[in-house]
Design brief:
Largest sheet: 6 strands, mixed
Distance between the termini: 41 Å
Strand order of the largest sheet: 6-7-8-3-9-10
Helix content: 25-40%
CATH architecture of one domain: 3-Layer(aba) Sandwich
Length: 275
């Protein structure tokens, strides 16, 4: 049983300034992620899911509340967090192994250590035979696996996934869902993934954070206490799907993490503008 919280999100609120007016994007977000846990954040467009990932990865530090990784407040990007986007963002003029090596570009690893780490992670995502290929020679699913290898090569404590399978066809998406689970279990990687797909969330997750929009708030947290491999047609799987769907559509509270209800405090009544 997982007992140690790796990521602790406490009363996080975020406000942008748009046309000189404050726009509240996130309000009083609370949840935790345990070591080696797979957590999915789900909600309709506009509920701040991707904004929350930006805060966790450290790309935006203009927020209220605390985001703690191993008890330390996140204040900048770091190698202890990797991120994968919906678009693989591989550089087309570099080979797959060169793209993966970019994950160690700012490290002090020796060339031999970099080569070994790249090879190990290409093997992890089943691309060991495609290291010298170029992005245009890969399928969409293979390119996303290369992006995952690049995010993992620096051995982050947590991997953030911003709808990484959203642009793929259904067959490739189902295959990569199984690959994500294999990577999660084999590499013992903590993962936080944003998705719109309820079935995907139930299939992958240890728990699901359900958000509601305008401003983005945590409506509730659904534990998924089903063994792997999971059967999408099983009654207990469908029951969890229906519970998540009911929350999204009807809005009844679910199992909340303990959290006070409060308005966000924005210093000096304003928030920093970010491009």
């Amino acid at each position: 049983m997982r007992a140690t919280n790796l990521l602790d999100i406490r009363a996080v609120s975020k406000t942008y300034i748009v046309d000189d007016e404050p726009v509240e994007v996130l309000r009083n977000i609370h949840f935790t992620v345990a070591e080696e846990e797979f957590v999915t954040v789900i909600g309709e467009s506009g509920c701040g899911k991707s904004t929350l990932l930006r805060l966790i990865v450290g790309l935006d530090i203009g927020y209220c509340g605390d985001i703690l990784l191993d008890g330390t407040r996140i204040a900048a990007p770091g190698r202890d967090r990797g991120i994968v986007f919906q678009d693989h963002r591989l550089l087309p003029w570099l080979s797959v192994e060169q793209n993966v090596a970019l994950g160690l570009d700012a490290s002090d690893e020796s060339p031999a250590a970099v080569k070994q780490a790249v090879a190990a992670n290409l093997d992890l995502v089943k691309l060991a035979d495609f290291g010298r290929a170029y992005p245009h020679q890969l399928s969409g699913g293979m390119a996303q696996r290369a992006a995952i290898a690049r995010a993992l090569v620096a051995k982050p404590r947590i991997l953030l996934l911003d709808e990484p399978l959203g642009a793929l066809d259904s067959q490739t998406r189902a295959y990569l869902q199984d690959e994500l689970l294999r990577i999660h279990q084999r590499g013992k990687v903590t993962m936080v993934m944003v998705t719109h797909d309820i079935e995907e969330a139930v299939y992958l997750s240890d728990k699901i954070v359900v958000m509601e929009p305008r401003p983005g708030r945590v409506r509730g947290i659904v534990p998924v206490e089903l063994p792997h491999p999971r059967n999408r047609a099983a009654a207990d799987f469908i029951a969890v799907k229906e519970r998540v769907l009911a929350s999204l559509v009807n809005g009844p509270p679910l199992c909340f993490d303990a959290a006070p209800k409060s308005r966000p405090i924005v210093p000096d009544g304003r928030a920093r503008r970010f491009g």
